[in-house]
Amino acid sequence: MAMASGRVQLVTIRQQSLDLARWRVLWIAVGFAFVALLALTRIAYLGIGGEGARATSLEDALLPSRGQIVDRNGVPMARAFPAYALWFNPKAMGEDGAPLVGTPEGVAAKLKAIFPDLDQKEVAAQLASGKAGYIRKRLLPEEANRVHELGELALEMPTEEDRHYPQGKMAAHVLGYVAADGKGRVGMEQVFDDHLSSPLTRGTPVALSIDVRVQGALEDELRRGMKLTRAQGGAGIVLDVDTGEVIALASLPEFDPNKIDAEGEKLMFNRVTNQVYELGSTFKPLTVAAAIDSGMLRDLGRDFDASPVTVGRFTIRDSHKMDPEMNAVETLIHSSNTTTARIADELGAERLRRYMIDLGMNARPEIEIPARGFPIWPGDKWPRLTNMTVGFGHSIAVTPLHLASAYAAMVNGGVYRPATLKKLGPGEAPKGRRVFKASTSSRMRQMLRAISVYGTGRSADAPGYRVGGKTGSAEKPGGKAGYRRTALVSTFAAAFPMDRPRYVVIAMLDEPRGTLASSYQRTAAWNAAPIVGRLVPRIGPLIGVRPDDTRDIDISAITPLIPEAQDEAE
């Protein structure tokens, strides 16, 4: 009996265990079903409406938020780049908790140790205010690790896509930058803003005409020239004479597009495209070219009176003593104001004015960059004195880009083409407009070469590269006499190789000083011309011009007109 009772009890316990197991399985199944139902409901909600409007295409998912800018060889100059940012979130510890473990001052001091350029007081004030905001826009991974080690939850480091300029400050005035609103500013970032930001086009990089190798060399030599002469600024350009493509363009001092601050904003002014100067004697070859082209100057051996020219109460003089008479070739070699003024006077105001208009000197320079300076133009009717002074680069103020485009037309066969910062493919160069006859251009190439061999451009004569060019040293306006004698703009305008010109090079220094490096001289022959002399051998092989001492332009037709050449022959 007792045994039977034990069996019944055992069966009952077993049945209870099975029932409990079944209930547990049932509840687990119900739980899974509930979770699945929630998931299905969420999927259905998203499918019907919900957040479906934010769905992105495959292109949106794969493409950067902003397209690349590359140089003519495909080297990245601007790109979207994932980066850490340092964000202060005062609610990271909860609504009621203190935002920081340490004191604002203590945390700011620790951040200062990581970022030496940080404004410690400003950051401490921001942390004490309890207001959320950026502390720093861009962090390196190792910097992010050090911030994480501080143990402050309120210092968050979200990953954001940032605009990055891998070449640093190089070509800053060409590129511009992207502002906080995501829009391009100043340079080609602004010009191509729609292309770079549109999902339809941002996958295709924007190719500029710039060559970063040439750009780096130009900036380096300009910077060196500025330091040697303690100049307050510099500008330079390398221009393809046949297409108008800008191979390099530099304005110094430059800003850093990776870090736009108050100081950087002051440096955004572009000296090449936006600042106008009286570029002095670099205009003399243009005046002589106009005189030859018009038929006014048929005999290059004709002598002009080199004594001072008096017009009304003004007198035009040369900066140093010269021969009493000089022909047109000597005028350029020795850079005479007086004989150039007489050539311009005989040419006439209307004809010289017409050539200057054809060279674009009366309008903003032609290029894509928004910052383009308007020339100081003498107007529709030029008095006799104005015409004379324009002839040697005064009474008219233009940008260095104006000068580069004019020289390109003077040496390329006589055709003016607008400058461009876009890379052009074969056959894409604009037709341009004829300004000078091909014969005039050929003669001017000889004369420019003679200046570098026998005249003020000797220090730019890089062996094997057949450089030709003209110096210009102009006093800046101001002072009681109308000009500041102690403040010069020194310019050298050149082309190479002169037997088949391919590139124009302009180097300009703003207010250089007489130093030991320049033999205590402030004129372009001693400071701007040497920049070109150092630059051309650096960039020539990079852009297809190799040195060749066996070739040169034939200037034998004009050497009989050059006393220095005759002295060498003897």
Rough outline? elongated
Helix content: 25-40%
Radius of gyration from the CA trace? 35 Å
pLDDT < 50 stretches: 49-56
Largest sheet: 6 strands, mixed
Structural class: alpha+beta
Oligomer: single chain
**Count of separate DSSP helical elements:** 19
Strand content: 15-25%
End-to-end separation: 150 Å
> Mean of the pLDDT scores?
89
> What's the total number of strands?
19
Which helices and strands occur, and which strands form pairs?
Layout: H1 2-48, H2 58-62, E1 69-70, E2 76-88, H3 104-114, H4 120-129, E3 133-139, H5 141-148, E4 155-156, E5 159-164, H6 172-175, E6 177-178, E7 184-185, H7 188-191, H8 193-197, E8 206-207, H9 212-229, E9 233-240, E10 246-252, H10 262-266, H11 284-294, E11 304-305, E12 309-311, E13 314-316, E14 325-326, H12 328-334, H13 337-347, H14 349-358, H15 384-391, H16 400-411, E15 415-416, E16 433-434, H17 438-454, E17 468-477, E18 483-496, E19 503-510, H18 528-539, H19 563-569
Parallel strand pairs: 1-8
Antiparallel strand pairs: 1-2, 2-3, 2-4, 2-5, 6-7, 9-10, 9-19, 11-14, 12-13, 15-16, 17-18, 18-19
Helix pairs in contact: 3-4, 9-18, 11-13, 11-17, 12-17, 13-15
